[in-house]
Amino acid sequence: MNATPRLRSAFPSTPSSGGRGVNQNANSGDSGGNGGAGGQQSSLLPGVPQEQKATMSPLSAPRVPVTLIDAPSQRMYTLAVYGLLSAWKLYDWWTLVEAETQSALLFVKWIFIDFVFLFGVPMLRIPWLEWSNATTSLAYVSHALATGMLMFRIPIPIEGWALLLAKTLYDKEMSISENSVSPARILHNASHIMGKQIINILPEGSVVMNPENLPLCLGNGHSTVTIPLQFNQTRPQHIQLLRIDLDTNANETVTLSSKEMKHSLQLEDGVLVINYVAKKTGLYRLHKVIDRTKLEVQRRMSDTLVVACPKGSIQSSVPNKCLGDLSNLTMQIQGTPPLHVVYSRFADEKRSIHRFQSIQPENFESPLLGGSASGTLILMGNQDVSWARASQINVPLNESMIHSGRWVYSIDEIRDASGNIVTYTYEADDGEHRHPKDAHLEQELTVHARPVVQLDGCDSRKPLLVASGKTTALPVMYTLPGRTPDDTSHTLNWKFSPLHTLTKGGDHGYEIAEEEFSARTAYHTPVIRDSGLYTLTGVKSQYCDGEVKEPASCLLVNPPEPQLSITSENINDKCAGMPIGLLVDLDLIGTPPFVVRYDVTTRTGTSSESLNVPGLRHQLQLKPQNAGHFKYRFTSVDDSVYKAHSLAGNGLTLEQDVKPPASASLRIPPETIDACIEEPVEMKVDLFGEKPFILEYELVHNGKRNRFKIPNIDTDIYKIQTDPLVNGGEYSLALTSIQDKSGCKIFLTSDVKFTVRRQRPKVSFGKIDGKRKTTVVEGQQVKLPLRLTGRPPWTVSYRCLNDSLVNLIIKTARSTNDHIDVSQQGVYEIMDISDDQCPGTVETKASTFEIDWVSRPRIKLADTAVLLPDDHKWLKREVCEGDIDAVEVHLIGTSPYHVKYQVRHKPETGSASIINKEFEAALGLATISMETSKAGKYEYKFSELSDALYDHDSKRFTPLVVEQIVNRKPSAHFVKPGQSYKYCKAELAGNEIIPIRLEGMPPFSLEVDIKHQSSSRPLTVKVANIESNRYDFIIPQPSLNLGMQHVSVRKVRDSRGCQQKTEYGAPHVQVQVYDVPTIHPTEARVDYCVGERIAYTLSGAAPFEISYSFEGVKRKAKSSATTFRRIAEKPGNFTITGVSDKASECKAITKISKIIHEMPSVRISKGRLVEVDIHEGGEAEILFEFWGTPPFEFTYTRSTNSRKGQKSQVLETRREVSHEYRMTIQSSQEGTYEVVAIKDKFCSFSTQKAETGGGQKLLQF
Question: Strand 236-244 relative to strand 282-291: parallel, antiparallel, unpaired?
Fold first, then answer.
């Protein structure tokens, strides 16, 4: 048992039949040798251990003992089993390829076999095949994926090569004799049909970028913009855009990804829109578009600009301006020129709109100057797009500000050259380019009025007179239009020249002083003292320089002090000869007018008197009323400049003893005396002299004088009282004479005039709408008109006759057509009247006024005949769930009406719910829709009512309650919804029974729909008088047809008259009526040629079993698809005798015979591949050449032209007949034309089967 020597890097040696235990013992033997006595190393091979079986581990030994089958053999057998399983799997896959189908059952089968094999091999513990669990799991997953691709026929790159290899090695098909034959051998390399012609139509599909020329911009919160690409009659596969950068003029090619092209919108037939999301500005142009046929799509040349969104701002140097200044504003507009700006100006409480057109830099050139952004904007080879860059342009605004106040300039809209419009509003909007108006978009200026200053009351003709050494205010009048004067500060400038320096013409002389004064308010004026000429030179408010108007100069003068000198003489009485007063002449020096003050001293004391003297001379008459010694001393004098100037010196004091004569005067009141008719008049008289007095007076009226004499008056004051004056008019009371103790009779001139009214004041009620009665809303205040005569104010007393508890009410009227405010209904009566001093009378016929109230609104049912009263509510007839019902109510009052009501719903189960509703009614009749959407009891409570005059008053309104019961709709359900019933059509005997469960109040009537899958309208079966809640529905036999029928309940009605229709998609049952399977040849012809495939179409449920005979031999074949095909490898009679399917288990007997002949030949385009390009609408010539026996009937196909990575699809198949050996066909349609079948007088030949995608049928020959 010598082992072959191996390098350390070599594979381990093949385990011997002794197993692993032998190797372990050998290793132990070696170690034992190394550890022997003396440390010598033995050169001999180790001996065979004696206890090999005892040292072998049972957990690591192979399941199959190596003594029975050695390890290499076990590995070989395992590999052989794996190879057989793989071959079996590939065979199953090949059967699927042949049948052109897939199988989930085979997939489950093989993943189970792979699981058993891959996880079972490590359990055998075969050396070198004991891989880990992770390796096992990875291998299983890989096998499962490969199995899925094979069994489900998922296209993989190796499948085509595998099929090619399989066809090369095993090119076999099932023949009529149920043998595998090689079609290539039969068809002789397809030499019977040769040639192919390809017609290409230049692409008529087109694409246009931004077809509606939408303006696009980035910025102002828009980071992206969508560019629509509209495709007409094509679907793109590859799209390239050219973008030229606006800043650098550099171009780049933008290729749309497949993800971007998936976001498409199908607008209409043939029109497809793909929205490209652009994130950069630039000029975009369609560069290259390839459709799915690998042809370039026609591009409509147009450029799309994506520019920066226009924006702007307004700047100002100062916010405060003066009237007449220029606005001096600058609008900074940024965008693609030329720009259009709309701005608004708010001034003088008015808003105006202004526009700037064609804002652009100097010498600016742009293709957009024409006003259109459509079409090609730049020429080929020219990439200069600097004209589309955003430019910042400063637009000055210099307007004369002719109105003071608040001026606001605001940018409202900016539009750039490409049509982008940015509109600014004061509130945010949902629009794409509408933005809130920020502070930088508007500039507010305050225009201040210029101040005006001038002198008031002082000019060249009227100097300012000031006492020497005194100060005075410079009479400056400051005005500022549009501003409260006392709320204005300003600075005042003037120049001053002393009086002695003025020129002869009165102007400023050689000495001039410039002065300035800061005033806090308009009334704050400077104080001046020195005499001289003052001239205003300027004024300035806080913001503006002002204007100085004339008079602007004022001369301040110090006049001389006032002086007084007097002379006097006595005044004697003519009757008694005694002095009764002094006559004093006053001579004054100063500036008139004067005020002379003097003291009068008597035995009772000293009193001060004053006298106003307008000029320089005056004569003063001093005649005291009482007798005695009088002393007069002049103390001071005032003129217009000096005040309280003291008088000193002799000759300013006068003394005299006085005894005055008797006198009397009436005390005349300051206001006009107006006496009442039939009332006396009283007047007081002041008497002067020695008592007793005799007074005479007279009363004059209408030219008549009545004289009266009153003796022995012992008082200084006497009251004259006349008799009641019964005649109205003007009276005169005059004092004629008075006599005192001295006996001298003195003539008097004191008199007074007064007027006596001609009638008493009267009062009456006026009329409202022509009568003294009115109707108003309850609680409304009414103004009862009064008609008054006399003199205001009047005092009117009235009362309400309907309210006995209310006392008289006093009303003070101040006009002849005054009114009384009342708010209660009833009859009001006027009781008394008086004016400001005279009592009056009340007109009896017009002393009362009646007030009535409008009735409050009411609600009631319009027609109670169909309603039943029940205590405090009305019962309405029961209805069904979902029915339309309504109730009419009458509204009594003044329209429009506002009604609120509650709808309380109490379902059959569950808690109640309340819904509050309201409505407006313009007429007195309203219709209320009843709630019938859910079953249960409904209560309608009309709780609030108001009309045009009255609001709702819960204390005076009685709710109206209507109650109605809504019955639930009946329902019908299948006991076993979704169940399917199936049987053969030929074996129909008896009827199908479908149990139905009914809910509601029996008896029921039922309508059932039976809808065939191929029919758009169902067949309705009606059933009446169903007395129970369960019904066994029997489908009438004439109602069933072949195929799938959906049986559903259409409508059910119960005894209450309620019905319910079943909605679409409700539970139903299916009835599958199977016909016996049939087999039909795909072609009606009987004659076939050798090498052709005889194909049949099967109807029924796969798989099928076909019985046929060929050359007298009966055979059977199975088909898992709905087609059955066999290749004819030799001539003979082929007859189908029967077919059966698995699903219905129905079998059909048939007899379909085919005769197989030899094959003809055909060539197209001389047997070569010819490619022809034509334009849309053009035609190409296709030449066919035939070999065989005419007439020839051939079939050719038009397929899509092959593209790289795409499979050609058959678009149409045509048949033609030729009685000659050559035939030419004109075609204007694009595609690949090739003959797929040829038939002469006896046989036919087919080269291929054409498959078309998209659900088209498989063509076979």
Answer: antiparallel
DSSP letter for 856, please. Answer: P
Gap between the Cα atoms of 792 and 776, Å rounded = 30
Residue 1256: pLDDT above 80? no
Beta carbons within 10 angstroms of residue 373's beta carbon: 25
pLDDT of 1196 over the 70 cut: yes
d(CA 55, CA 21): 6
Check: pTM over 0.85? Answer yes or no.
Answer: no
pLDDT surpassing 70 at residue 327: yes
Question: pLDDT for 980-1014, tens place per residue?
Answer: 876 666 655 445 688 989 888 889 999 888 888 77
Averaged over 953-962, what is the pLDDT? 87
* Confidence (pLDDT) at 168: 57
Distance of CA 537 to the CA centre of its chain: 63
The rounded distance, in Å, linking the Cα atoms of 1138 and 874 is: 78
pLDDT in tens, 414-453: 998 888 898 887 654 444 455 667 778 888 888 888 889 9
* Whether the Cβ atoms of residue 1096 and residue 1124 lie closer than 8 Å to each other: yes
Helix, strand, coil percentages in the chain from 3-state DSSP, rounded to 5: 10, 50, 40
CA angle 296/302/304 to nearest 5° reads 115
Mean pLDDT of 720-749: 85
Residue 575 has pLDDT above 60, yes or no: yes
Q: Positive or negative, the Cα torsion across 120, 122, 128, 133?
A: positive
Average pLDDT of the segment spanning 562-591: 83
Residues belonging to the chain: 1261
Structure confidence at residue 1248 (pLDDT): 61
Alpha carbons 375 and 211: distance in angstroms, whole number: 10
Calpha distance 406→408 (Å, rounded): 7
d(CA 1118, CA 1120): 7
Could you tell me the two tokens for 1164?
């197209």
Residue 1244 near residue 1237, CB atoms below 8 Å? yes
- Where is pLDDT greater, at 863 or 1225? 1225
Mean pLDDT of 747-764: 87
pLDDT higher at 572 or 835? 835
* Type of residue at 1219: H
User: Is the model's pLDDT at 1091 over the cut of 90?
Assistant: no
Of the pLDDT bands very low, low, confident and very high (cuts 50, 70, 90), residue 164 is low
Q: What is the 3-state secondary structure (H, E, C) of 361-409?
A: CCCCCCHHHHCCCCCCCCCCCCCCCHHHCCEEEEEEECCECCCCEEEEE
Contact 505, 596 (CB under 8 A): no
Would you say the C-alpha torsion 1169, 1174, 1176, 1180 has a positive or negative sign? Answer: negative
Asked whether the predicted pLDDT for residue 12 surpasses 60, the reply is no
Instruction: Give the Cα-Cα-Cα angle 95, 101, 105 (nearest 5 degrees).
Output: 80
Which residues are CB-contacts of 851 (< 8 A; sequence separation ≥ 6)?
773, 774, 775, 776, 782, 784, 822, 824, 825, 826, 827, 828
Helix (H/G/I), strand (E/B), else coil: 55: helix
Dihedral over alpha carbons 737, 742, 744, 746 (to 10 degrees) = -30
| SS3 per-residue string spanning 1133-1175 | EEEEEEEEECCCCCEEEEEEEEEEECCCEEEEHHHCEEEEEEC
CA distance 1153 to 1135: 4
**Strands 1161-1164 and 1244-1246, bridge-based pairing:** unpaired
Given the structure tokens 């027609």, which residue do they identify? Answer: 863
Six token digits for residue 1197: 């196909």
Burial classification of residue 78, based on how many CB atoms lie within 10 Å of its CB (0-12 exposed, 13-18 middle, 19 or more buried)? middle
CA–CA dist 252, 20 (Å, integer): 71
Distance of alpha carbon 523 from alpha carbon 1056, whole angstroms: 97
